[in-house]
Amino acid sequence: MKAKSIIGAAVVGLAGVAARDLTQKKHSLRRNFPVIAHARYWLEKIGPELRQYIITSNDAERPFSRDQRSWVYASSKKENNYVGFGTDNDVENLEGYVIVKHRTFAPSAPSTSVAHGHDDAVDLPAAKVLGGPRGRAHAFRPGSVVNVSAMSFGALSGNAIESLNRGVALAGALHNTGEGGLSDHHRKGGDLIFQIGTAYFGCRDEQGRFDLARLKDLVQSAPVKAIEVKLSQGAKPGLGGLLPAAKITEEISRIRGIPMGQDCASPSRHAEFDDVDSMLDWVERIAQETGLPVGIKSAVGEQDFWSDLAEQMSGRSRGVDFITVDGGEGGTGAAPLVFTDTVALPFRVGFARVYSTFARAGLTDDVAFIGSGKLGLPDNALVAFALGADMVNVAREPMFALGCIQSQKCHTDRCPTGVATQDPWLAHGLDPTLKSVRLANYLQTLRRDLLKVSEACGVPHPGLIDADAVEILDGNRLGTPLREVYGYEPGWGALGPDLARDITSIMWPERDRDTEAPESATATA
């Protein structure tokens, strides 16, 4: 009798836990997997001990280490993302380790205003105006140097896309639609970058051909601020996109204009142009018809394309407004292993080659450079800015903010947290109202960290950090300046004088009066 009572009480208790898990919205895993999901949180709690004595270190996991994921999780929840007792990295003996060189003195003490890191609402606009140098009708200055990268509805669930869009609206950032078209989930208040892929989803006719009239109607129907032409993706360049049949719902079929029941493979190349000359003609046509800034996104492989592009843009009669360089270490929902592991240069190598090509042509102030590929962590983003990036796009890190646990099930449609799936049950566990706030928290925290490190380097904006401010350690107790590692000439990676002056006046409008240091009673002018 006593055993039955114990079993009965246990069943009632578990039923209560299950009911609570199913009705709460804070944790996607508990909502999708009631009761048993608690095991993960218990294992996570004792994780430091398990890793220290049995399994692995905080830095050993890939693509993102536990330290990196934990930082995003804590930032998105407004929890303490600081660490105690100092670094656990073997700094002197790590090859490729990044060191940011702070300055002892700076032109002005850092500001204490909201825009300088002492409040949740951290404003950190881009240093360049997209479309400004080419006189686009709807040129604009992005309000955030950190924006959400291209992830299509289809690769991600509708709830995930809605969370991203609501989140960027809260954070004042931009949301790239990805090549999968513009869905209702993208229309939740966030400003958009509409991406045109090789299949022309969202702007194609019944035969799958590009349709300019449909593009114009589409961008006028939503808060589209710019257009990005996708040439390739870092994780699978030259392959085209792939949406597995398991992820194609009736809604996706309608938005993309594709059949259900079979994989949706985008072509590897565009049908509208076949060289740099025809590409620039097409870009200018779109820019003139829509009035929007138009840029390109590409991984970096052969150099001839970039040399030809810089040469043809030197005449300044045609050109792209921005270039998004995607590193080979970037993410994807589904791709062959050989492509994710070996095709396309990693971000730093590839970006440096592209930037150097445009620097030699004297064009770096006329084009906005955007980096992507694991740049959603402060140290990686700072190196991107030092190399000459004006903004960074982030993708997998926002997925962590939405609840992703790096299960690496994106290609199976069985994402346990409802982020990268079209399964209705799994997707329902992700609550856009809650997760959008977490995304905004993460974006604001990353901007705040970038701003505080910039101030440590004596400048008011990460775009003013140059290649001399960073060293790369070689693993043998020596370091090499970033400029030497990538062969940068003096001045490369830095903004031109006019751009530097403009962004400084924006970030430090009252630099002489609003500082952390009180006026000195003894210092002389």
TrEMBL record:
GO terms for molecular function: glutamate synthase activity. Residues 146-458 form the Glutamate synthase domain. It comes from the Bacteria. GO terms for biological process: glutamate biosynthetic process. InterPro entries: Aldolase_TIM, GltB, Glu_synthdom. Belongs to the glutamate synthase family. This is FMN-binding glutamate synthase family protein. The gene is gltB2.
